[in-house]
Write a structure and sequence with these properties.
This protein is of the alpha/beta class and about 350 residues long. Helices cover about 25% and strands about 20% of the residues. It folds into two domains: about 210 residues, DHBP synthase (Alpha-Beta Complex); about 100 residues, Threonylcarbamoyl-AMP synthase, C-terminal domain (Rossmann fold), CATH 3.40.50. The protein is built from nine helices and 15 strands. It binds threonylcarbamoyladenylate (TXA) and magnesium ion. This is Threonylcarbamoyl-AMP synthase.
Length: about 350
Protein backbone atom coordinates (compact mmCIF):
# COMPACT_ATOMS: atom_id res chain seq x y z
CA UNK A 1 0.00 0.00 0.00
CA UNK A 2 1.21 3.47 -0.93
CA UNK A 3 -0.24 6.55 0.73
CA UNK A 4 -2.36 8.30 -1.90
CA UNK A 5 -2.60 12.06 -1.41
CA UNK A 6 -5.77 13.76 -2.64
CA UNK A 7 -5.27 17.27 -4.03
CA UNK A 8 -8.66 18.96 -4.36
CA UNK A 9 -8.24 21.68 -6.99
CA UNK A 10 -11.93 22.31 -7.70
CA UNK A 11 -11.61 25.95 -6.59
CA UNK A 12 -8.54 26.44 -8.81
CA UNK A 13 -9.73 25.08 -12.17
CA UNK A 14 -8.79 28.16 -14.15
CA UNK A 15 -5.98 29.40 -11.88
CA UNK A 16 -4.03 26.35 -10.82
CA UNK A 17 -0.95 28.51 -10.33
CA UNK A 18 -2.55 29.82 -7.14
CA UNK A 19 -3.16 26.35 -5.69
CA UNK A 20 -1.07 26.20 -2.50
CA UNK A 21 0.16 22.60 -3.04
CA UNK A 22 1.04 22.91 -6.72
CA UNK A 23 4.79 22.67 -6.12
CA UNK A 24 4.31 19.42 -4.19
CA UNK A 25 2.48 17.93 -7.19
CA UNK A 26 5.15 19.09 -9.65
CA UNK A 27 7.97 17.78 -7.42
CA UNK A 28 6.25 14.39 -7.16
CA UNK A 29 6.00 14.09 -10.96
CA UNK A 30 9.65 15.15 -11.35
CA UNK A 31 10.78 12.50 -8.89
CA UNK A 32 8.99 9.78 -10.84
CA UNK A 33 5.73 9.68 -8.87
CA UNK A 34 2.37 8.52 -10.20
CA UNK A 35 -0.44 11.08 -10.05
CA UNK A 36 -3.91 10.81 -11.59
CA UNK A 37 -5.08 13.98 -13.29
CA UNK A 38 -8.33 15.23 -14.84
CA UNK A 39 -8.61 15.68 -18.60
CA UNK A 40 -11.55 16.67 -20.80
CA UNK A 41 -12.00 13.03 -21.94
CA UNK A 42 -11.41 10.82 -18.88
CA UNK A 43 -9.04 10.97 -15.89
CA UNK A 44 -5.50 9.84 -16.72
CA UNK A 45 -2.81 8.16 -14.59
CA UNK A 46 0.22 10.36 -15.23
CA UNK A 47 3.97 9.91 -14.85
CA UNK A 48 7.16 11.33 -16.41
CA UNK A 49 7.33 9.76 -19.89
CA UNK A 50 11.14 9.95 -19.89
CA UNK A 51 11.50 7.97 -16.64
CA UNK A 52 11.52 4.20 -17.20
CA UNK A 53 10.83 3.33 -13.58
CA UNK A 54 7.93 5.75 -13.34
CA UNK A 55 6.32 4.38 -16.50
CA UNK A 56 6.77 0.78 -15.33
CA UNK A 57 4.93 1.93 -12.22
CA UNK A 58 1.92 2.90 -14.35
CA UNK A 59 1.66 -0.60 -15.84
CA UNK A 60 2.00 -2.11 -12.39
CA UNK A 61 -0.57 0.14 -10.69
CA UNK A 62 -3.14 -0.55 -13.42
CA UNK A 63 -2.29 -4.23 -13.88
CA UNK A 64 -1.89 -3.42 -17.58
CA UNK A 65 -0.02 -5.64 -20.08
CA UNK A 66 3.25 -3.89 -20.95
CA UNK A 67 2.85 -4.38 -24.72
CA UNK A 68 -0.10 -1.96 -24.72
CA UNK A 69 1.61 1.43 -25.19
CA UNK A 70 0.67 4.69 -23.49
CA UNK A 71 -0.34 8.15 -24.73
CA UNK A 72 2.22 10.92 -24.16
CA UNK A 73 0.64 14.24 -23.12
CA UNK A 74 2.20 17.58 -23.99
CA UNK A 75 1.56 21.27 -23.45
CA UNK A 76 3.16 22.73 -26.57
CA UNK A 77 3.93 21.39 -30.07
CA UNK A 78 7.58 22.50 -29.58
CA UNK A 79 7.97 19.46 -27.31
CA UNK A 80 7.40 17.18 -30.32
CA UNK A 81 10.89 17.88 -31.68
CA UNK A 82 12.34 15.85 -28.80
CA UNK A 83 10.65 12.57 -29.63
CA UNK A 84 8.82 12.46 -32.98
CA UNK A 85 9.99 12.73 -36.56
CA UNK A 86 8.57 13.27 -40.08
CA UNK A 87 5.40 15.11 -39.08
CA UNK A 88 3.58 15.81 -42.35
CA UNK A 89 1.94 19.10 -43.25
CA UNK A 90 -1.44 17.41 -43.15
CA UNK A 91 -0.80 16.21 -39.60
CA UNK A 92 0.26 19.73 -38.63
CA UNK A 93 -2.99 21.04 -40.04
CA UNK A 94 -4.95 18.58 -37.91
CA UNK A 95 -2.99 19.60 -34.82
CA UNK A 96 -3.80 23.22 -35.50
CA UNK A 97 -7.46 22.42 -35.93
CA UNK A 98 -8.00 20.13 -32.95
CA UNK A 99 -5.26 20.71 -30.35
CA UNK A 100 -5.55 21.31 -27.51
CA UNK A 101 -8.40 18.80 -27.48
CA UNK A 102 -9.67 15.23 -27.43
CA UNK A 103 -7.59 13.69 -30.22
CA UNK A 104 -4.42 11.58 -30.12
CA UNK A 105 -2.09 11.29 -33.10
CA UNK A 106 0.09 8.24 -33.73
CA UNK A 107 3.39 9.62 -35.05
CA UNK A 108 6.79 8.22 -35.97
CA UNK A 109 9.04 7.91 -32.93
CA UNK A 110 12.42 9.60 -32.71
CA UNK A 111 14.35 7.35 -30.37
CA UNK A 112 16.40 8.30 -27.34
CA UNK A 113 14.26 10.75 -25.39
CA UNK A 114 11.19 8.91 -24.11
CA UNK A 115 11.73 5.83 -22.00
CA UNK A 116 11.27 2.52 -23.77
CA UNK A 117 8.16 1.15 -22.13
CA UNK A 118 6.00 4.17 -23.06
CA UNK A 119 5.90 2.92 -26.63
CA UNK A 120 6.16 -0.80 -25.85
CA UNK A 121 8.95 -1.21 -28.39
CA UNK A 122 6.95 0.20 -31.35
CA UNK A 123 8.51 2.67 -33.80
CA UNK A 124 5.55 5.00 -33.29
CA UNK A 125 4.23 7.03 -30.37
CA UNK A 126 0.75 8.25 -29.40
CA UNK A 127 0.65 11.98 -28.53
CA UNK A 128 -2.11 14.19 -27.17
CA UNK A 129 -2.41 17.81 -26.05
CA UNK A 130 -5.36 17.92 -23.65
CA UNK A 131 -7.52 21.05 -23.30
CA UNK A 132 -8.63 20.65 -19.68
CA UNK A 133 -7.34 23.79 -17.90
CA UNK A 134 -5.95 21.79 -14.95
CA UNK A 135 -4.15 19.32 -17.24
CA UNK A 136 -2.76 22.19 -19.32
CA UNK A 137 -1.50 24.09 -16.31
CA UNK A 138 0.15 20.95 -14.90
CA UNK A 139 1.85 20.07 -18.19
CA UNK A 140 3.15 23.60 -18.50
CA UNK A 141 4.51 23.73 -14.94
CA UNK A 142 6.08 20.29 -14.94
CA UNK A 143 7.69 20.91 -18.35
CA UNK A 144 7.97 17.18 -19.08
CA UNK A 145 5.98 14.94 -21.41
CA UNK A 146 3.54 12.99 -19.23
CA UNK A 147 2.56 9.41 -20.09
CA UNK A 148 -1.06 8.82 -19.10
CA UNK A 149 -3.41 5.95 -19.80
CA UNK A 150 -6.94 6.11 -18.39
CA UNK A 151 -6.75 6.01 -14.57
CA UNK A 152 -8.61 2.73 -14.04
CA UNK A 153 -7.55 -0.78 -13.14
CA UNK A 154 -7.13 -2.85 -16.29
CA UNK A 155 -10.49 -4.44 -17.15
CA UNK A 156 -12.58 -1.68 -15.51
CA UNK A 157 -14.35 1.22 -17.25
CA UNK A 158 -12.42 4.45 -17.75
CA UNK A 159 -12.90 6.94 -14.91
CA UNK A 160 -14.82 10.14 -15.52
CA UNK A 161 -15.00 11.28 -11.88
CA UNK A 162 -12.57 11.61 -8.99
CA UNK A 163 -14.56 8.92 -7.13
CA UNK A 164 -14.03 6.40 -9.95
CA UNK A 165 -10.25 6.95 -9.78
CA UNK A 166 -10.20 6.76 -5.98
CA UNK A 167 -12.19 3.51 -6.03
CA UNK A 168 -9.70 1.79 -8.37
CA UNK A 169 -6.33 3.31 -7.45
CA UNK A 170 -6.36 4.52 -3.83
CA UNK A 171 -3.37 2.88 -2.14
CA UNK A 172 -1.65 2.10 -5.46
CA UNK A 173 -0.45 5.55 -6.61
CA UNK A 174 1.10 8.67 -5.06
CA UNK A 175 -1.77 11.04 -5.60
CA UNK A 176 -5.03 12.00 -7.27
CA UNK A 177 -5.92 15.49 -8.44
CA UNK A 178 -9.57 15.98 -7.63
CA UNK A 179 -11.54 17.96 -10.19
CA UNK A 180 -15.07 17.78 -11.60
CA UNK A 181 -16.60 15.18 -13.95
CA UNK A 182 -14.80 14.90 -17.30
CA UNK A 183 -16.59 16.92 -19.94
CA UNK A 184 -16.47 14.56 -22.95
CA UNK A 185 -16.69 11.34 -20.93
CA UNK A 186 -15.18 9.02 -23.59
CA UNK A 187 -11.49 8.54 -24.42
CA UNK A 188 -9.87 10.61 -27.16
CA UNK A 189 -10.08 9.80 -30.86
CA UNK A 190 -6.88 7.96 -31.86
CA UNK A 191 -5.75 8.73 -35.42
CA UNK A 192 -2.91 6.75 -36.95
CA UNK A 193 -0.91 9.23 -39.06
CA UNK A 194 1.94 6.81 -39.82
CA UNK A 195 0.25 5.17 -42.82
CA UNK A 196 -1.66 6.66 -45.69
CA UNK A 197 -4.55 7.35 -45.79
CA UNK A 198 -4.77 8.05 -42.06
CA UNK A 199 -6.83 5.60 -40.05
CA UNK A 200 -9.04 5.98 -37.01
CA UNK A 201 -7.71 3.47 -34.48
CA UNK A 202 -10.29 4.47 -31.87
CA UNK A 203 -13.32 6.72 -32.48
CA UNK A 204 -13.84 9.66 -30.11
CA UNK A 205 -15.29 13.14 -29.76
CA UNK A 206 -13.42 14.41 -32.81
CA UNK A 207 -15.55 12.63 -35.40
CA UNK A 208 -14.87 11.07 -38.78
CA UNK A 209 -16.61 13.98 -40.55
CA UNK A 210 -14.67 16.60 -38.59
CA UNK A 211 -11.46 14.89 -39.75
CA UNK A 212 -12.67 14.52 -43.33
CA UNK A 213 -13.40 18.25 -43.42
CA UNK A 214 -9.68 18.94 -42.98
CA UNK A 215 -8.04 15.99 -44.75
CA UNK A 216 -7.65 16.50 -48.50
CA UNK A 217 -7.85 12.76 -49.26
CA UNK A 218 -10.18 11.73 -46.49
CA UNK A 219 -9.46 8.99 -44.00
CA UNK A 220 -9.26 5.25 -44.50
CA UNK A 221 -12.83 4.01 -44.14
CA UNK A 222 -11.69 0.54 -43.12
CA UNK A 223 -13.53 -0.64 -40.06
CA UNK A 224 -11.12 -0.43 -37.14
CA UNK A 225 -12.83 -3.38 -35.45
CA UNK A 226 -12.68 -5.88 -38.29
CA UNK A 227 -9.02 -5.69 -39.29
CA UNK A 228 -7.24 -8.93 -38.39
CA UNK A 229 -4.24 -7.00 -37.13
CA UNK A 230 -5.41 -4.42 -34.62
CA UNK A 231 -3.81 -1.02 -35.25
CA UNK A 232 -4.20 0.13 -31.67
CA UNK A 233 -2.43 -2.61 -29.71
CA UNK A 234 -4.98 -2.12 -26.93
CA UNK A 235 -7.74 -3.38 -29.21
CA UNK A 236 -6.69 -6.99 -28.79
CA UNK A 237 -7.44 -6.90 -25.09
CA UNK A 238 -10.96 -7.62 -23.88
CA UNK A 239 -12.83 -4.36 -23.65
CA UNK A 240 -14.66 -3.49 -20.48
CA UNK A 241 -18.15 -4.94 -20.03
CA UNK A 242 -20.17 -4.78 -16.80
CA UNK A 243 -20.78 -7.92 -14.73
CA UNK A 244 -24.51 -7.57 -15.32
CA UNK A 245 -25.61 -8.82 -18.77
CA UNK A 246 -26.44 -5.75 -20.81
CA UNK A 247 -28.51 -5.44 -24.01
CA UNK A 248 -29.07 -2.48 -26.31
CA UNK A 249 -32.59 -1.48 -27.36
CA UNK A 250 -33.42 0.93 -30.15
CA UNK A 251 -37.11 1.70 -29.92
CA UNK A 252 -39.34 2.62 -27.03
CA UNK A 253 -42.36 4.58 -28.21
CA UNK A 254 -44.99 2.83 -26.08
CA UNK A 255 -44.88 1.47 -22.51
CA UNK A 256 -43.27 -1.93 -22.03
CA UNK A 257 -46.14 -4.30 -21.25
CA UNK A 258 -46.36 -4.61 -17.48
CA UNK A 259 -49.20 -7.09 -17.59
CA UNK A 260 -46.84 -9.84 -18.68
CA UNK A 261 -46.17 -11.29 -15.18
CA UNK A 262 -42.53 -10.20 -15.23
CA UNK A 263 -40.70 -9.20 -12.09
CA UNK A 264 -38.82 -6.05 -13.05
CA UNK A 265 -37.28 -5.33 -9.64
CA UNK A 266 -33.93 -6.86 -10.65
CA UNK A 267 -33.81 -5.05 -13.99
CA UNK A 268 -32.03 -1.78 -14.71
CA UNK A 269 -32.77 0.60 -17.58
CA UNK A 270 -30.15 3.09 -18.73
CA UNK A 271 -31.99 5.62 -20.86
CA UNK A 272 -33.02 9.21 -21.58
CA UNK A 273 -35.33 10.99 -19.15
CA UNK A 274 -37.93 11.21 -21.92
CA UNK A 275 -38.38 7.41 -21.80
CA UNK A 276 -38.67 6.97 -18.04
CA UNK A 277 -42.48 6.91 -18.02
CA UNK A 278 -42.46 4.05 -20.54
CA UNK A 279 -40.60 1.49 -18.43
CA UNK A 280 -41.97 -0.50 -15.46
CA UNK A 281 -41.97 1.42 -12.19
CA UNK A 282 -40.23 -1.34 -10.21
CA UNK A 283 -37.20 -1.28 -12.50
CA UNK A 284 -34.01 0.56 -11.50
CA UNK A 285 -33.53 3.67 -13.64
CA UNK A 286 -30.23 5.32 -14.62
CA UNK A 287 -30.72 8.47 -16.69
CA UNK A 288 -28.11 9.19 -19.40
CA UNK A 289 -29.55 12.38 -20.91
CA UNK A 290 -32.72 14.45 -21.01
CA UNK A 291 -33.69 13.87 -24.62
CA UNK A 292 -33.24 10.74 -26.76
CA UNK A 293 -31.10 12.69 -29.25
CA UNK A 294 -28.55 14.14 -26.85
CA UNK A 295 -25.40 12.24 -27.85
CA UNK A 296 -23.16 14.64 -25.94
CA UNK A 297 -24.91 14.08 -22.62
CA UNK A 298 -25.08 10.32 -23.17
CA UNK A 299 -21.33 10.22 -23.90
CA UNK A 300 -20.60 12.39 -20.86
CA UNK A 301 -22.58 10.02 -18.60
CA UNK A 302 -22.02 6.54 -20.10
CA UNK A 303 -19.07 5.40 -17.97
CA UNK A 304 -20.58 6.79 -14.77
CA UNK A 305 -23.73 4.78 -15.56
CA UNK A 306 -21.69 1.60 -16.11
CA UNK A 307 -19.77 2.17 -12.88
CA UNK A 308 -23.12 2.58 -11.12
CA UNK A 309 -24.47 -0.62 -12.66
CA UNK A 310 -21.52 -2.60 -11.32
CA UNK A 311 -22.42 -1.46 -7.82
CA UNK A 312 -26.08 -2.53 -7.98
CA UNK A 313 -25.62 -6.08 -6.74
CA UNK A 314 -29.35 -6.90 -6.79
CA UNK A 315 -29.64 -6.19 -10.53
CA UNK A 316 -29.41 -9.28 -12.75
CA UNK A 317 -30.01 -7.77 -16.20
CA UNK A 318 -29.82 -4.32 -17.77
CA UNK A 319 -30.98 -2.56 -20.93
CA UNK A 320 -29.43 0.54 -22.47
CA UNK A 321 -30.92 2.82 -25.10
CA UNK A 322 -28.86 2.77 -28.33
CA UNK A 323 -29.29 6.45 -29.35
CA UNK A 324 -29.28 7.47 -33.04
CA UNK A 325 -26.34 5.92 -34.87
CA UNK A 326 -24.90 8.92 -36.69
CA UNK A 327 -21.41 10.40 -37.18
CA UNK A 328 -21.52 12.22 -33.84
CA UNK A 329 -22.48 8.98 -32.05
CA UNK A 330 -19.74 6.72 -33.47
CA UNK A 331 -17.64 6.76 -30.29
CA UNK A 332 -20.66 6.33 -28.02
CA UNK A 333 -21.79 3.32 -30.06
CA UNK A 334 -18.30 1.85 -30.15
CA UNK A 335 -18.08 1.81 -26.32
CA UNK A 336 -21.71 0.84 -25.79
CA UNK A 337 -21.70 -2.09 -28.21
CA UNK A 338 -18.60 -3.52 -26.56
CA UNK A 339 -20.03 -3.05 -23.06
CA UNK A 340 -23.11 -4.99 -24.27
CA UNK A 341 -20.99 -7.69 -25.98
CA UNK A 342 -22.92 -6.92 -29.20
CA UNK A 343 -26.25 -8.02 -27.67
CA UNK A 344 -29.45 -6.28 -28.78
CA UNK A 345 -33.06 -6.65 -27.66
CA UNK A 346 -34.91 -8.45 -30.42
CA UNK A 347 -38.60 -8.84 -29.67
CA UNK A 348 -38.79 -10.24 -26.12
CA UNK A 349 -37.62 -8.25 -23.10
O1 LIG B 1 -8.61 10.32 -23.72
C1 LIG B 1 -7.61 9.62 -23.65
O2 LIG B 1 -6.96 9.26 -24.65
C2 LIG B 1 -7.13 9.19 -22.25
C3 LIG B 1 -6.69 10.44 -21.51
C4 LIG B 1 -6.12 10.14 -20.15
O3 LIG B 1 -5.79 11.18 -22.29
N1 LIG B 1 -6.11 8.21 -22.32
C5 LIG B 1 -6.35 6.93 -22.75
O4 LIG B 1 -5.23 6.11 -22.72
O5 LIG B 1 -7.44 6.53 -23.11
P1 LIG B 1 -5.30 4.53 -22.84
O6 LIG B 1 -3.93 4.06 -22.53
O7 LIG B 1 -6.38 4.00 -21.99
O8 LIG B 1 -5.56 4.27 -24.36
C6 LIG B 1 -4.54 4.51 -25.31
C7 LIG B 1 -4.82 3.78 -26.59
C8 LIG B 1 -4.66 2.28 -26.43
O9 LIG B 1 -5.70 1.63 -27.15
C9 LIG B 1 -3.29 2.02 -27.06
O10 LIG B 1 -3.19 0.71 -27.56
C10 LIG B 1 -3.25 3.07 -28.16
O11 LIG B 1 -3.85 4.21 -27.59
N2 LIG B 1 -1.85 3.38 -28.54
C11 LIG B 1 -0.88 3.92 -27.78
N3 LIG B 1 0.27 4.02 -28.46
C12 LIG B 1 0.02 3.56 -29.70
C13 LIG B 1 0.83 3.40 -30.89
N4 LIG B 1 2.09 3.75 -30.93
N5 LIG B 1 0.22 2.88 -31.98
C14 LIG B 1 -1.08 2.54 -31.95
N6 LIG B 1 -1.88 2.66 -30.86
C15 LIG B 1 -1.32 3.16 -29.76
MG1 LIG C 1 -7.86 2.80 -21.07
Amino acid sequence: MVKTTVWDVRDYTSNLKDYPNLSEIIETYRQGGLIALPTETVYGLGADATNEQAVQGIYQAKGRPSDNPLIVHIYDTDQLDDFVTNVSETTEKLMEAFWPGPITFILLLKEGYLCESVTGGLNSVAVRMPSHPVARALLKEVALPIAAPSANLSGRPSPTTFEHVYHDLNGRIDGIIQSTQSEAGLESTVLDCTSFPFRIARPGTITRSMLNDILPNGIDEAQFDNSDKPIAPGMKYKHYAPETPLKIFNVLNRPIDEAGQQDWSQTAFILPESFVSLVPKEAHIIVLSESENDIQAASHNLYAALHQLDELTHITRAYIYGYPNNDEAEALHNRMVKAANYQYVEGEW
